[in-house]
Predict the structure.
Amino acid sequence: MILVNNRDRVSWQMGMTVTDLLKKMRYSYSLITVSVNGEVIPHEDFESHMVPDEADVTIFHLAHGG
Amino acid sequence: MADVSNLNTDAIFERNVPGIRGILSEKSVAVAGCGGLGSNAAIALVRAGVGKLIIVDFDTVEISNLNRQYYFIYDIGKRKVDALSAHLKNINPNVEIEAHHLKLTADRVDEVFKEAHLLIEAFDRAESKAWLIETWCIHFPDRPCVCGSGISGYGSTETLRVQRAGKLIICGDQETDMSMGLISARVAIAANMQANVAIELLVSGKI
């Protein structure tokens, strides 16, 4: 089981990548930053970075404006 | 204007929370972007007693900035980093400011921010926020990155929040987009949330 944003529980699968997790959660929003167990994962690594079981994942939305 | 040459500038901080000034005076904070978030956060950090700021922005002050950014009519046309440096020095003449008038790119993050203990991310565009966060975390994985996301509109004060994951902290509602318009009250709340988180981390003894 993976915990996302301290709220949503998502079942874990062997070999699950960040991209797989985002698809499973139906995330289509591209302007995000993803942290897995406190480590920020670069966008270019989403397809290769494995999410371990019991991972604590945070998905931040990035909105324009500064 | 009063003669300030003989002022005891330590007295600026005599109403501060006791014990934090000494710690903050040894700290260096990077501020990436000197718009609504960056300029207001920088002011709060200098008022708290942070010893050094590294500020970066490529822009000049325009009249449309005055509704939310820490600039004045007489700043129009000046480089933002120069105008902001002057305002910061007018609060604490002893603060050290390293000002970079440039458009920051990922390949320069390491060099420009090498001395910073913490980053205030204050860019405009979400895409830019993304690469800056990723680049900072690659180069400085042990140093906090305090970002702003979702600061537009007015009201909905209760939706402004702080979300943390490891060394990454995001302040804002993570939803409202600048296309709906930006107004000082809400932008400055988010900027001061960033500064407040930064102060908390800097005095924590962990960085």
Summary: Residues 2-61 of chain A form a domain with the Ubiquitin-like (UB roll) fold (CATH 3.10.20.30).
